[in-house]
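Input set for joint prediction.
Command: fold jointly, output tokens.
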Amino acid sequence: MAQMNMIQAIRSALDVVMDKDPNIVILGEDVGYFGGVFRCTDGLQRKFGEHRVIDAPIAEGGIIGTAIGMGVNGLRPVAEIQFADYIYPGFDQVVSELARLRYRTAGDLTSPVTIRTPCGGGIRGGQTHSQSPEGIFTHISGIKTVMPSNPYDAKGLLISSIESDDPIIFFEPKRIYNGPFDGDPDKAAVSWASHPKGEVPGGYYTVPLGKADIVEPGDDLTIITYGTLVHVAQAAAKLTGFDAEIIDVRTLAPLDVSTLTDSVNKTGRCLIAHEATRFSGYGAELAATIQEHCFWNLEAPIERVAGWDTPYPHAFEWQYFPGQKRIAAGIRKVMEAG
Amino acid sequence: MSTRSRLHIPHPSARPGDTPDFSYLELSPAGAVDKPPIDVRVRDIDHLSHGLVRVLDDEHKAVGPWNPNFEARELQVALRWIMLTRIFDERMQQIQRQGRISFYIQSLGEEAISIAQGMALRPGDMCFPHYRNQGLYLYRGCKLVDLMCQCLSNTRDMCKGRQMPIMYHSKDANMFSISGNLGTQYPHAVGWAMASAIKGEDHIAASWVGDGSTAEADFHHAVTFAAVYQAPVILNIINNQWAISTFQGFAGGERRPFAARGLGLGIPGIRVDGNDLLAVYAVTVWAADRARRGGGPTIIEHVTYRGAAHSTSDDPTKYRPKDEWDAFPLGDPLLRLKNHLISEGHWSEKQHAALEKELRADVLNAWKEAQKSGTMTEGPYLDPATMFDDVYAETPEHLEIQRKQMLALED
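tokens >
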């Protein structure tokens, strides 16, 4: 076991699988010589060479489009989109090509591309370096959408993603690259060193796709969340004193429905939290699923805490970010209803 | 020049009722364009993107440095494939008009491109076609009956009923899947070619788009990546003069030939007579040899004419002169090859008529065979339960649930 932050864990995942499988290649802007703007691929080009860790032109559609072709030709490409906010020029390639190829060819042609991309706010990135577009991707059949909340899961889930024969959109919440973030921007930054999930095996292991994780067991209510907000929700629950069962979804699609519904059927109360905008957001799907499976056990309306339905404003980052106070208020509302 | 800016709206040279006018097409006489060695410096062959490589002259003779010097037998076989493609199209068009398939796209007038390039490429090369490459599917080994079954979405459909007609694929023939979103296959071809080079193989990739689709971002992504990594790929632009109702000017073809699209990136461009099988074959072999030996990508613009409607969904008499194809200076690729063979003494009208009869029978037999696997109105039918397969490598729980829900309603 080693202490790793999320960046080191992701790099370790790439290193381990590239050692194992010569068909794995990395493609993206600044990923090669420089090692990525967030350093996730640092040192990999030196180790694996320029033909396996490839610096790409500034063209996200080209990165995803060529990665698909590489995948059809037997490689297992890991494409990096520097910020999730930059993924839209490649959106058609994801929706119309990557996600559909297996289906439209009845399984004859496939391309196991993994797209890694940092998402989320809290780094003063303004509206073009802070978005959480996961809900757009969970709406597309044929791809799987993953978002880890800690180094251990990041490495295990990334290895599973790269080895999966399905295309994967792998979101990395960049606010927690260096340490867990409880939503209080005024507190000193915390590193992963003191967090149990910062303990990461150096070698090969996997965390299965399609399985949610019960981060904290509890009886009063269920908080369903993922990414950065897992840590914010934990702090918010402490603030309220309620005994919350906190679930980290981890694989957003396909969803591990039973882990979520078993929990809500037990607690009878449910809060859903995500950083992405609320309207038509991923939380709406979660709420509908919970309603469908847990209606007769619900003691209060399902509460959603999410980013406001505005672009991510640079100057009002912390008013926008669904921090401890907003989640705590949501918890109280769920607990006081009914 | 004017004293103020102006918005230029491109207009074709003729609309319905006008006399067809192809004076905008710059043509070179057959044999006039030089053939450089494949290791030529790219900057020294810019002129190939503005000339027009032609081998068959107006007297039906094969002339000039690009003449591939085919044996008569090879050309007879090529003619057979072109004829088969045309007869297949004719039959499928008719079948669509009878309401027996939902949609069709003919390749009338463009058949020589698919066949010539099929002949020039190797089986191990990977093709990323567009929707008017049916000749290439046939040439590379796809059976008539299998293409028909795809159009019927029947039990023998390679796509299991998931794609509209003509969106074929064949893993065995190294033919990629056709997408309705235009130009998306172009970067796939470049990525495939990059992978081939990464793996140290000498297979190359080839892709095709229409003149209209060169406006898509994917086109530009593809040529950029192809240039940057010198990918072993042939990027074909089929300039058939028309997108649907917009002519090639709406893709920016008014002032510079499409073959010149890659010059700024250092990709050589060759403009070729797309209705001349010999010329298309020769430039494709040149580009393929170059790609296979590390020379990188080539853009080939095939100057041709879309002889039929864009698809069964549009009526071309609404947007272009009825007799425009008759006036097209590069003629009909089938007739040109036929006349060449006849003028060389290797073919006759009698042989031609006999072959046509034989191929019509083949197509008709294939259609009879295809219908045995089901039609739109008569079984056998595909099992609707299969629509939940192949979304993912393994079917996840929520799709199994939806499959059961759907089947419950079927009972």
